[in-house]
Amino acid sequence: VSGEQVLTFVAQSVRMAVPYTCAALGGVWSERSGVVNIALEGMLLGGGLAAVVVEHATGSAVAGVAAACGVAAAMGLAHAATFVLGRVDAIVSGIAWNLVAAGGTRFALRALYDSSSNSPVVAGFGGWGGASPLLRTLVDPATLLAAALVAWTSWCMSRTAFGLRVRACGEDPSSARAAGVGVARVRIGAVTLGAAICGLGGAALAFDQHQFQAGMSGGRGFIALAAVIVSGWRPARAAAACLAFAALDAVQIGFQDRAGEWRDLVQMVPYLATLAALAWIALRRGGAGGSAPAGLGHHA
Amino acid sequence: VTSSRPADQRLVGLLASLGGIATAWIAFDLLVWGYGESPRAMLGMLLAGTWGTPYGAAQVLYKATPLLFTGVAVELALRAGLFNIGAEGQLTIAGLAVGAVGAAFPASVPAVVALPVLLVVAMAAGAAWAAPPALLRARLGIHEVISTIMMNRVADALAAFALAAGLAVHGTVRTSNLPPGARIPRLEAVAHAFRGSAASVALFLALACAAALPWAFARMRLFREIALVGMNPVACAAERMPVARRLAQALCLSGAVVGLASTATVLGYKGYFESGLGAGAGFGGIAVAMLGRGSGVGLVAAALLFGTLEQGGLAINAHVPMEAMQVLEGVIIVAVALADSRMRALFARVLPPASRLA
Q1: Chain B residues within an 8 Å CB radius of A275
Q2: Residue A75 CB partners (closer than 8 Å, separation 6+)
Q3: pLDDT category, B2, cuts 50, 70, 90?
Q4: What pTM does this model have?
Q5: Are the Cβ atoms of B323 and A91 closer than 8 angstroms?
Q6: Rounded mean pLDDT of chain A?
Q7: For B186, phi and psi rounded to 5 degrees?
Q8: Of B269, B263, B283, nearest to B97 (Cα)?
Q9: ipTM for the complex?
Q10: Which of A12, A20, A163, B7 could form a disulfide with A250 if both were Cys (CB 3.0 to 4.6 A apart)?
Q11: CB A254 within 8 A of CB A16
Q12: Nearest residue to B225 via CA among B209, B236, B210
């Protein structure tokens, strides 16, 4: 194994970690406020499509990212309102919004580009940082932004009044309300903010392929949620877990060419690894929900 | 505080379902209008392409059959408080198993031998694919939503591997044809007007499942305990009920019922298994269960509605993308759940306290 191969592998892992990490941050914001969020999968799809559509129309990748965050935030708002104001089970709401996103993105592909599988090609952020793959990945705006958002989320959650309110709503919504916190408003705000970050992940996913493909999230939203659980709902550790999943993904893709008839089995690796990681952490903690926010899924 | 008189419950359920359908209608109009077509014309075309001809009606029945199986299965797990969103993968594995075993029968196999064996294979394969999430949930408390979704992905990869590794006819992604004795008769064999439709006798098996579900929860000890665990696992544990075991059994039973849906797709329709056969029926089953509100009649009505939407989607596909129907599934789930939750709150306020204690 040459040095260049190692660098390429590291670069690929970092690049593939961006969608996972953004989705996981969305999960942290949502679940620390007490709202179970399985709609991350749909937000990745919605964000990815919005990024490509807007860049294709305007030619600006920045506008595409803004649209991705906006669309995903709107989905987050819908999910949060369904749970907080509508008092619907958050899992039911998440399943439904995921279906709307899966069908809606396919509908939009047919409506806008007359294709049932993919959008036209867009440039994304391609071309920064020269020829070295590692450098090109590290100075990619989406990568830098994701890394900054991990640090910002950690800081916000532990050091700011808003972060404290979010955690209070997640741990004990009734007490938070008694202490004068507007639980509904804080939760809706936290879920929407997290969804906007998740939308950035969708944009990174689509820009990485230079197009949107139907169903391209491929379970990443759920794997990111597993990373949140494994990390004990902590942003930096969740990002580390995402990097590990992305590295596995990169290994899996690296093996695709060489695996021959075993190719399809190699594809299972990220999903089996997710199950194994959840089982391992549950065994270590003596139960999967050991360090979950105590008010997760409860109303004030 | 919720109102718990059975009559109130039924009324809330019915009103919530009607609210969901009304919302879906509005969403359909908006999608069609946004696409630049006339909602009225598209609704007319949708109805003409489904219930307008015997063939269209039979196709609705065919589309509704797997949905009814998966709807019953999702409802079964919901009674235990579990979300089986792994029906997609369970159906893939069951279809693969039925296709593989069925193709291995000799050409002259009699139906009395082949069909019982294949039914058992279908149920066993579906249950087996539900077993890992069931055990992870029961033993380690790992939420079934993530694990069943992961199992869906693994199922797709496993089916692709098995087909490529020798189950498929060379150069294709399908198994070889099942012998005639291993097929389920189509309705066109009895009703001539249904000619050309894939609707099969599997429909009656699905109806039997829908009828058996409420009966089992009312009469059978295992199912009663599953429902009790779904209502209050802590109280059940205090009563020395094997809570973990009942949860695992509920998810595996749900997988077994999902497996039966392969009778409609593999045995009734294609006569072989191919990559992607039955896709969408798993998620559709969630919508059926949410709209069906736990009654057998409700599940059948919901399966017919979504069967109509699926077939109707094909009928209007040349004018409006049929993907719109998947959006409607999600919209109906949200709308029914919202209407249900809001109406319960309203009933709790409006009705005198006595009815709340009942």
Answers
A1: 132, 136, 147, 150
A2: A39, A42, A43, A46, A97, A101, A195
A3: very low
A4: 0.93
A5: no
A6: 92
A7: -85, 155
A8: B263
A9: 0.92
A10: A12
A11: no
A12: B236
